[in-house]
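Summary of Year 1 activities. Much of the first year was spent building the evaluation harness for sequence design. The harness presents a backbone, in tokenized form, and records the residue chosen at every position. We chose the following record to illustrate the format because it has been used consistently in internal testing since the harness was completed.
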């Protein structure tokens, strides 16, 4: 990996780690969901970087893809398990990191995903397979009495690319991508008290552009103009800040110009914890960019 690229990964990771750590400490029962999201996103811009995706804040059985909507009145409640998933990018090079805040009595659940992540990071080296990493994650979670979420995975990163090979499973699989020096990817174990699989909810607040096609309706053209500089990275409905543009989103999804990301959740009443770091494989291990 060229030095300039590694420097961008490291700078994005350092900023993401600092903001995630500070924002996690600010979460309290009764605190505003929207205020937290807007504060964190503003801190990324103030730090001289940009968001790789809207801040994900997912509660309890929700595992991923939730963020604040315009005028969101939700507050954090006593007993909530709050996942914060933050993506920061500099010149398209991404730091993807997540932590979980426990407003209840779920220390062991949080330990399961956190220690699964740390054990996987310790094992990373060239020649290891993604399936071997998945086995490590699964073992650490299951030995604490929880289930890994089988249909969520870690993922490779590249310039303005949030998901690519290698896919890093949260369960043991045969084979998988062989790790090589210079690879950049995120490992993100999810531990759950539920079924170990997530499904889609109806709530969709995050979108990304997946195709370039002619658009006739003026509001739809305005959406595409507004998100062009994202270069395919996800954006929030809230960022459009215009009801007319909001109404254009379903048509753009139907036309397969945009992709919507529904909130992903385990069974109602379950609790999910998540921890995530971005790393770059070295000759004898890895550099964790988001410490």
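For this record, the design step produced the sequence shown next.
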């Amino acid at each position: 990996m060229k030095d300039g690229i590694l420097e961008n990964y490291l700078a994005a990771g350092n900023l993401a780690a600092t903001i995630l750590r500070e924002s996690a400490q600010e979460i309290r029962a009764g605190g505003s969901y929207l205020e937290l999201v807007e504060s964190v996103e503003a801190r990324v811009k103030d730090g001289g970087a940009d968001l790789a995706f809207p801040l994900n804040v997912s509660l309890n059985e929700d595992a991923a893809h939730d963020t604040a909507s315009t005028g969101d009145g939700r507050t954090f409640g006593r007993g909530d398990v709050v996942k914060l998933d933050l993506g920061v990018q500099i010149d398209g090079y991404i730091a993807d990191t997540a932590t979980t805040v426990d407003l209840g009595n779920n220390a062991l659940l949080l330990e399961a995903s956190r220690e699964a992540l740390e054990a996987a990071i310790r094992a990373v080296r060239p020649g290891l397979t993604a399936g071997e990493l998945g086995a490590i994650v699964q073992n650490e979670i299951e030995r604490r009495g929880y289930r890994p979420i089988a249909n969520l995975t870690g993922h490779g990163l590249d310039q303005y690319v949030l998901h690519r090979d290698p896919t890093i499973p949260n369960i043991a699989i045969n084979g998988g991508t062989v790790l090589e020096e210079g690879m950049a990817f995120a490992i993100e174990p999810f531990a759950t008290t539920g079924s170990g699989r997530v499904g889609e909810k109806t709530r969709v607040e995050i979108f990304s552009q997946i195709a370039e096609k002619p658009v006739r309706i003026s509001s739809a053209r305005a959406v595409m103009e507004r998100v062009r500089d994202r270069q395919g990275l996800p954006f929030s409905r809230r960022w459009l800040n215009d009801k007319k543009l909001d109404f254009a989103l379903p048509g753009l999804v139907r036309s397969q110009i945009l992709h919507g990301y529904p909130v992903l959740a385990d069974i109602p009443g379950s609790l999910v914890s998540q921890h995530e770091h971005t790393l770059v494989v070295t000759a004898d291990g890895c550099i964790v960019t988001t410490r």
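The two ends are 20 Å apart (CA to CA). Quantitative recovery figures across the full test set are reported in Table 2.
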